[in-house]
Amino acid sequence: MVGRIVLPPRGFVSRLTLCFILSLFCAEPPVRAADEAEEPYFQTHFQDECQFIIETISTDLAEMFYFAKNHSLPLQRIVAEAEEVTDAGLENLSYRLVVKFPGKETSIRSELSIDQPIWDPRVYDPLINALADKFGIKKNIPAETNRPSGSPNSTKLVEALLELNGTNIEILNQQISEALTRIFLDRDLHEQAALLLGAFGLREASGHFTDTRLALCRMTAHLAFARGLDRASPAGMAGRLADALLYTLMNNQRDVLQRCDDLAKSDPQLAPWIRALRTLATGDYRTLRQIAPLSHLERIAFSSAGATLNGPNLHFRDLSSWEFQSDLDAIRLFAEHHYSGITGYVLFQQMNLELKEIAEVVQLARKEKFDERNLASLLKADPEGCVSLSSQTQAVVRVIGWGHWSLYFQRHLCNAVPHSYQFLRSQPGFRKDAAEWIARYRALFKGLMFAPLIELFLAEDEASYQKAIDDGIALTVAVPHLISPELWVEISHQSGAFPLYHPVNDHISEWHKHDPPPGTAHAMRGRSLHLSVRGGRKNSTERLEELHQMAPYDRYISTTIMRIKSRTGATFHELSTFLDPLLDYSATAWNGAFGFGASFTRLENLIKDRPARYYPVGQLLFGMSEDMGFNYIQKAIDKNADPATGAYLSQSLIYYYLRKNMTNKAEQVANWAAKVPSEPGPRAQIRFLRAVGRVQEAIEARRSFEDRYADSRSLAAAFIHYRYKTHDHRHDAAMEKRLGDLFPAGIEKVTLTNFTERPLDGTVVVSENEFTQEAGLKRDDVVVAVCGVRVHDWYQYDYARYLDENPETTLILWDGGRYVARKGKPAAEGVISFNNYNMSGAPLRAASRKKAATH
Fold first, then answer.
1. pLDDT (0 to 100) of residue 141
2. Cis preceding linkage at 552, omega within 30
3. How many Å from the N-terminal Cα to the C-terminal Cα in the chain?
4. Residues in CB range of 217: below 8 A, 6 or more apart
5. In sequence order, which ranges of 162-316 are alpha helices (DSSP H)?
6. Angle at which helices 732-742 and 713-726 pack, to 10 degrees?
7. 3-state secondary structure of 47
8. Which of 17, 41, 149, 208 reaches 20 to 30 Å from 100, CA-CA?
9. ω before 117 within 30° of 0 (cis)?
10. Vertex 94 angle, CA 245 and 138, to 5°
11. pLDDT on residue 20
């Protein structure tokens, strides 16, 4: 089967750069399609994206039917060739299909009408009928009753996939694959396979490299095969859920919501899945704020929606750093966007977590121990068909083959390297270490197909950037189907960091002939910049407005329409209607509204009778005016609008009032938040009680919080805070019981002499004010020990700062060049000035590192 692959991250392009890219599109020379008499431009049989999709799905289906009949595969490849019917017109798009079998097997011919989304299994009914007739596979056969042992049933699979991670996916992959190898004509197993692939696709978050098309093609093949086995009966639960996932990955948002409504009626036990899919379709994460605890699937949806529609810096506060540090999926989703240094301390962990997941999956899938020195050779595998020949020439089923895993890992590694390097390079004292870090990964990645393209985001001189462009163009010729729609933009139309370099025609519109693939709104973050979507150089919005009807919550579609229409004299009211579905919960959408001329009068008109909109507006205004931003949040709380969001924002509002010496207002907000049935509300009240010294009340509230949310870490800090304030040791025994959760490795006693090399974790000062000054701290100081106790994160710092009952506390901190010991008051409760600091994975040796010094 033809090789299949992809590429780097999304969040590296600024708004000004985006405008520059658009201007390049307008100036692009017309793309000339290859003349039939000429040699094809692309070095693949397929010459456009839709041809690739149809041939990939059709080849899988042909191999499936061959295997179902013969329990083997021919030694020579089965070939599917699709040709667009040129006289059918776009409204009646169809393809003539020929499937060629080796040896004496006769070919079959069929015609596929693309009257549904191209990945909808119904499109392939004519091919299914022809293949079933050829191989004598009966249709409408009953489900197998002798299900093989070890294969999960649909209910167990649905439950297992809620805790979505690489290890879980591979274990289930092996179970379903082995079951299908033994009993291939089992409809339920094919629906399970499609569901597993959909879950695999949901974890894709590799920025510019993001590409779900291979997962979509394989899902379609399994669902089409299952449909061919029994069309008389409705799909099972796994099939119904897989269908909703299929449309989620296509980004057909209206269809997803309709399917969620149907699932809510037919399968109420799928409630966590339905919540997650609704969130992914609309970007409205507010419902998930009210759920505790969230399944990992729901956390993925929550992180994806929040990072996209609020930006990682705002949404970062929704997830505690403690949880975030080990959540690879959340880190990937946040790293797809621009972020500040505060968020970067957590996101820097991505590379370590990526390598950890690779090691776990390698152990399961290949039965070998991972050695990162062999990374390039390990990840060179091409994606296999659903059925492939093993080394013993025995045919086996692999729902997710190692080739698919290898491309998945390549994409995410390529995304992690540039943003991690840029963050490390920006940190005080880390510039030389950043050079060591990137040299290490350049060496590890050498030989990977896409490694040269990382240089698109790392190049620091014109020559290296031009080489990256040349390498990228060569790849678009050799493997156009493996270049993500967004990466085509990065290769073809530069960011403006260097002089324009455009040596050859990149054929971007030729490859994306039907853009996005018919019946879908797939991957619009990149495709919204394609000329083929934007009506060519005329910048027409006709196609985009059709896509907006299909995906009304896609902000890339909306903002592109607004950008084009704003040049033709459209009124602000006309423009704002395209963002309207998002304005209830998206600060990013409001940022777009301001960018297109929203005065404060117009702003109030958009908020009128919609008080929940005060929240995202307030969040957006923080950066301009703290007073104005918090005023809008207070307005929403006064109207009891969207309590879950209000409770989430209440802690910041409480601290704002305390800094203003408005304790009564702070208490009113704290009491209101405590009544909201979601985790942030009670936490905000506890923070208020501790800030004003009502420590016994804080303990009582924290006990209830621990019972409800099974989180004991902050209760230990509340106990020690009580002792510090009252000199009363009555809670010491209860505190000691909880220290194991707070200090998993035990409490480490340290002095200044224990520290010689730059720290890799601790708690970092992210803002300065009178409270941090009282504690003797400045921005970017990294506190590593308090009262003689080593602290690795904020929770440990919160506990240790009250160990010494003296008014002043001894701190050991790294000031960017050396360790120093200082005495200062414990940082006041009513301030958010700290964040977890974790630079694990940075080089440990650096010539510039200075020895510890005492002050």
1. 55
2. no
3. 67
4. 53, 56, 57, 60, 119
5. 166-182, 187-202, 213-229, 237-250, 253-266, 271-282, 286-289, 296-309, 312-315
6. 140
7. coil
8. 41
9. no
10. 65
11. 35
Give the phi and the psi of residue 100 in degrees, each rounded to 5: -105, 125
With cut-offs at 50, 70 and 90, classify the pLDDT of residue 831: low
* 3-state SS string for 646-665: HHHHHHHHHHHHHHCCCHHH
What pLDDT is stored for residue 534 in this prediction? 83
Q: Rounded to whole angstroms, how far apart are CA atoms 731 and 820?
A: 33
Name the packing angle between helices 713-726 and 695-709 (round to 10°). 170
Round the CA-based radius of gyration of the chain to a whole number and report it. Answer: 28
The model's confidence at residue 89, banded by pLDDT at 50, 70 and 90, is: low
The amino acid occupying position 151 is S
User: Helices marked H in 507-641 — which ranges?
Assistant: 508-511, 524-527, 542-550, 555-566, 572-576, 587-595, 600-607, 614-621, 626-638
pLDDT tens digits along 695-744: 999 999 999 888 887 778 788 999 999 999 899 999 999 999 999 989 99
Torsion of CA 620, 626, 629, 632, to 10 degrees: 170
The more confident residue out of 783 and 709 is 783
Name residue 721's amino acid.
H
Strand-pairing partners, residue 785, are: 790, 812
CA distance 506 to 567: 27
The pair of three-digit structure tokens given for residue 47, joined into one six-digit string: 């010459």
Residue range 640-654: mean pLDDT, rounded: 93
Residue 353 phi/psi, 5-degree rounding, is -70, -35
Tokens matching residue 172: 């289930």
Query: Which residues 6+ apart lie within 8 Å of 762 measured at CB?
Result: 782, 783, 784, 791, 792, 793, 797, 813, 814, 837
* CA 305 to each of CA 288, 316, 790: distance values in angstroms, whole numbers, following the listed order: 11, 12, 36
Neighbour count for residue 257 (Cβ, 10 Å): 18
Of 290, 259, 287, whose CA–CA distance to 275 is shortest?
287
Are the CB atoms for 309 and 525 separated by under 8 Å? no
- The share of the chain scoring above pLDDT 90, in percent, equals 60
Residue with tokens 């030729």: 510
Considering the entire predicted model, what is its pTM? 0.89
Bridge partners (DSSP) listed for residue 786: 789, 811
In this predicted model, what pLDDT tens digit does every residue of 207-260 receive, in sequence order? 999 999 999 999 999 999 999 998 888 899 999 999 999 999 999 999 999 999
The answer for residues whose C-beta is within 8 angstroms of residue 91's C-beta and 6 or more apart is: none
- Residue with tokens 């690779």, as numbered in its chain: 358
The pLDDT of residue 853 is 33
Specify whether the CB–CB gap between 62 and 124 falls below 8 A.
no
3-state secondary structure at position 115: coil
Residue 568: count of CB within 10 angstroms of its CB: 8
pLDDT, mean of residues 61-82: 94
Contact present, 539 and 528 (Cβ < 8 Å): no
Q: Band the pLDDT of 7: cuts 50, 70, 90.
A: very low
Q: What is the mean pLDDT of residues 411-438?
A: 88
Burial class (CB in 10 A: 0-12, 13-18, 19+), 661: exposed
Evaluate whether 338 touches 347 at the Cβ level (below 8 Å). Answer: no
Task: Output the pLDDT for position 472.
Answer: 92
Assess whether pLDDT exceeds 70 at residue 10. Answer: no
Per-residue tokens: 189 = 């197993």
pLDDT value at residue 839: 78
